[in-house]
Amino acid sequence: MTDLKVSFLGLGVMGFPMAGHLANAGYNVTVYNRTAEKAQKWANAYNGDVAQTPEQAAEDADIVFMCVGDDNDVRQIGNKALSVMRAGSTLVDHTTASADVARELYDACQAKQVGFLDAPVSGGQAGAENGQLTIMVGGDDAVYDTVKPIMETYARHSQLLGKVGSGQLAKMMNQICIAGIVQGLSEALHFGQRAGLDCNAVIDVISKGAAQSWQMENRATTMLDNSFDFGFAVDWMRKDLGIALDEARKNGSTLALTALVDQYYADVQKLGGGRWDTSSLLTRLK
Question: What is the pLDDT of residue 1?
Fold first, then answer.
């Protein structure tokens, strides 16, 4: 058991297993979740403590990890935690949020001599549960070097990409790529089904060539089975794409395909699929 005290704020489908990996690695973990029952469920599964407020969780912590919903959650919960954090401690935000809110929180941390990293993750629920996440990080070298070995309890790879905000900008690129790939895969499967092909057999072949992708390897079969009740929700993807589109308007980049796929996801929401996996883009073609 290490003497390092860490806290984890937010026990959703990502945060719950991520905090669990920290506890299993021997860290002293205190968790906070707005739904107290979820925090107690975590405590029953792992060796750790439950706090009733973000402030209680963050007090005396060496490192506070946070994985919450959106910019407003980051501001609200992050600032509450920061209000009691001591100089020399570190706040790490794993939320997928805007680069602007990352910079705001960094400035607030600087005023209190608290380190800060924006560190959104990729890999989905399965990656979190299996400790195989990829982490895109923005911040200062010294802070990253301190936190990196701890994040390795739930990540297969992390990389510092530049100053604060760089992690969030990289995550926007990640989501932009995924949106286009899932739409292309959906159209290919739709085409194959209408053509009367054995699409499972076709995927087995083309996944060995240039068309291969993580989405093809991990989602093609479930898409063909019309199974979408799992994974990364459409509602969350629309939130993420909205952040990317907002940033594009600021930096002058053109995201025509991303904007189109975002509207396709709106169609899926209208079908009642807000909580379906992002691979459910196929449903609107049927």
Answer: 53
